[in-house]
Amino acid sequence: MAVVRIDHYNLRATRELLDELRDFYSTILGLEVGYRPPFRSFGYWLYAGENPILHLSEVSPGELRECDAKNTFDHIALACTDLQNVESHLRDKEIHYRRAEVPQTGQIQLFLTDPAGNKIELNFSFLT
Questions:
Q1: CA 44/CA 36 separation, integer angstroms
Q2: What is the pLDDT of residues 75-117, one digit of tens each?
Q3: 19, 35, 61 — which closes off a domain?
Q4: Each residue of 18-44: pLDDT tens digit?
Q5: d(Cα 85, Cα 83) in Å, to the nearest integer?
Q6: Which residues of 35-54 are buried (b: 16+ CB within 10 A; e: fewer)?
Q7: Which end of the chain is more exposed for a tag (fewer CB within 10 A), N or C?
């Protein structure tokens, strides 16, 4: 077996928080809610183009998921384009972010958090 890329990531939360996450990732990051197979559980699949890169799943009854849990996960990084428009959009929506530059490569990184406290890196190559 050879891993070739990250396919998607999955966030599990209550239905109320799922709706907040859906709205954040679609309104702020531009992902689109799309087809999701008819699983038994409630949820959403959010797409970047044709790829369902974010799965949002409702927790099972009695299942507890803590926001901001302490573990080894730090952030998900998303390759992005159009840096100036993204920064303008984040400012317009009053989304706090931190900007950094990768030494030697010229890549720009924008770091922000979603409503559940998950860190997100928006990564822009020096050509964007």
A1: 6
A2: 899 999 999 999 999 999 999 999 999 988 889 999 999 999 9
A3: 61
A4: 999 999 999 999 999 999 999 999 999
A5: 6
A6: eeeeeeeebbbbbbeeebbb
A7: N
User: Does residue 69 sit within a domain?
Assistant: no
Q: How many domains does the chain have?
A: 2
Q: Is residue 114 exposed (0-12), middle (13-18) or buried (19+ Cβ within 10 Å)?
A: buried
Asked if 18 and 63 count as a contact pair (C-beta separation under 8 A), the reply is: no
For 17, the token pair is 């928080």
Domain that holds residue 40: 7-61
Residue with tokens 């860190």: 119
Angstrom distance (rounded) from CA 121 to CA 29: 11
Together in a domain, 11 and 46: yes
The structure tokens listed for 64 are: 């507890």
The token duo for 50 is: 């044709």
- This prediction's pTM: 0.88
